[in-house]
């Protein structure tokens, strides 16, 4: 029996997490979302959590009155999410919040000694040092839910000596604009950018896949999760999203994790680790695929990857600045305010705004976030 809090329960990872929880007979102790009253009400009636929270205060009031007949206590605001992250009854927190808003709840959950199943990559990008230091201090495991990082984590189960690990190889689908030139990307629309070939995900991450910022963020995430140097993380474009990532040993032997693209495998593994159970995901038939293809990333067209690599090499608050600039640029693109190619330009400018500071606190990260976002907005 596991008792789980899900932060971001109405999103794509959140709903699939509830699916996994239901199939394994686990208990959802707390559920949180941003402002989706209808969805969260439905989840409260089905899963009967002890606590729930909506970030949006008005939506939280509405939810409170709608579920007054249940035993679920409703919280509001970011403090409400943090309250749910620390719920006494929970042993594990799945963090699938979108964006660096997930950082504070992650740090609070670590402080409360909860096991973290992390789907919120921005947490590690913005505050990697803080998160990993605190997790170590509290002896709390951070289990990856991102498909690539779950793949690496699974491959590493056979690694008995960290010194023998030479490289991590992240696979990237390449997104909807694979093979396109910069010229062809000048006038792409939001709708075209939202048309991902393999994964059905939320809007923010789908745009991040189209710009390949997602792979840059995942590179930074890998550096923190697995303690590798940025120069030892390779990226290979793999259109079919069947090989979820690979590791290479010093003898050049390569281990990969494969499966059909379905997030319920990484979600379930993060919850059942080190055990494995049956899952509702279909079997992989390689013969049906026939062939798997691999390509070098086009770093000139998809500049975000190297901007992120450089940011994490510089360390400190540079990755946080890259993330904040991207969150703002991604939002502005989705709302029709800027062109697609303006996104990498703004991310680059955002990184230049980062204060040069090797050691940082949560307040430094939040301050950098506010400054970079304001700067990006002033450029639009
Ligand atoms: Mg991923």
In angstroms, what is the radius of gyration?
20 Å
Beta fraction of the residues? Answer: 5-15%
Are there runs of 5+ residues with pLDDT below 50, and where?
Answer: none
Main-sheet strand order equals 4-3-2-1-5-6-7
Report on this model:
- By secondary structure, the chain is α/β, with parallel strands linked by helices.
- Helices cover 47% and strands 15% of the residues.
- It has 17 helices and eleven strands.
- It has helices at residues 12-24, 37-47, 57-66, 77-85, 103-111, 121-138, 147-155, 182-185, 190-193, 203-211, 213-226, 264-272, 286-289, 304-314, 318-334, 342-352, 362-379; strands at 3-7, 27-33, 51-54, 73-76, 92-95, 115-118, 142-144, 165-172, 233-237, 243-249, 254-258.
- The protein has a seven-stranded parallel beta sheet with strand order 4-3-2-1-5-6-7, with helices on both faces.
- α2 (37-47) crosses α3.
- The longest helix has 18 residues, at 121-138.
- It is globular.
- The mean pLDDT is 97.
- Bound molecules: magnesium ion (MG).
- Residues 146-148, 218 line the site of magnesium ion (MG).
Strands, helices and their partners?
Layout: E1 3-7, H1 12-24, E2 27-33, H2 37-47, E3 51-54, H3 57-66, E4 73-76, H4 77-85, E5 92-95, H5 103-111, E6 115-118, H6 121-138, E7 142-144, H7 147-155, E8 165-172, H8 182-185, H9 190-193, H10 203-211, H11 213-226, E9 233-237, E10 243-249, E11 254-258, H12 264-272, H13 286-289, H14 304-314, H15 318-334, H16 342-352, H17 362-379
Parallel strand pairs: 1-2, 1-5, 2-3, 3-4, 5-6, 6-7, 8-9
Antiparallel strand pairs: 8-10, 10-11
């Amino acid at each position: 029996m596991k008792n789980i809090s899900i932060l971001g329960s109405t999103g794509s990872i959140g709903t699939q997490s509830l699916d996994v929880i239901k199939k394994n007979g686990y208990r959802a102790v707390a559920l949180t979302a941003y402002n989706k009253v209808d969805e969260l009400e439905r989840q409260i009636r089905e899963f009967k959590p002890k606590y729930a929270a909506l970030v949006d205060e008005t939506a939280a009031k509405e939810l409170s009155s709608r579920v007054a007949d249940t035993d679920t206590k409703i919280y509001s605001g970011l403090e409400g999410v943090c309250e749910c992250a620390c719920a006494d009854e929970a042993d594990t927190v799945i963090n699938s919040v979108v964006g660096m808003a997930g950082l504070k709840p992650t740090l609070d959950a670590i402080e409360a000694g909860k096991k973290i199943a992390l789907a919120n990559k921005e947490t590690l990008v913005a505050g990697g040092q803080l998160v990993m230091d605190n997790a170590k201090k509290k002896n709390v495991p951070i289990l990856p839910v991102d498909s690539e990082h779950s793949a690496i984590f699974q491959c590493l189960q056979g690694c008995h000596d960290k010194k023998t690990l030479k490289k991590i190889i992240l696979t990237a689908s390449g997104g909807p604009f694979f093979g396109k030139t910069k010229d062809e990307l000048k006038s792409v629309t939001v709708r075209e950018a939202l048309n991902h070939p393999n994964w059905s995900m939320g809007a923010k991450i789908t745009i991040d896949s189209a710009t390949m910022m997602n792979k840059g963020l995942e590179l930074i995430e890998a550096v923190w999760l697995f303690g590798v140097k940025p120069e030892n993380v390779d990226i290979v474009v793999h259109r079919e999203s069947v090989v979820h990532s690979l590791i290479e040993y010093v003898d050049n032997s390569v281990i990969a994790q494969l499966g059909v693209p379905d997030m319920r495998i990484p979600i379930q593994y993060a919850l059942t680790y080190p055990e494995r159970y049956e899952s509702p995901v279909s079997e992989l038939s390689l013969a049906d695929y026939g062939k798997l293809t691999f390509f070098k990333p086009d770093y000139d067209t998809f500049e975000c990857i190297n901007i992120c690599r450089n940011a994490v090499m510089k360390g400190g608050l540079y990755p946080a600045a890259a993330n904040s600039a991207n969150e703002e640029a991604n939002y502005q693109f989705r709302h029709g305010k800027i062109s697609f190619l303006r996104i990498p330009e703004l991310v680059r400018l955002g990184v230049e705004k980062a204060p040069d500071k090797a050691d940082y606190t949560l307040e430094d990260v939040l301050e950098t976030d506010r400054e970079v976002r304001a700067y990006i907005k002033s450029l639009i």
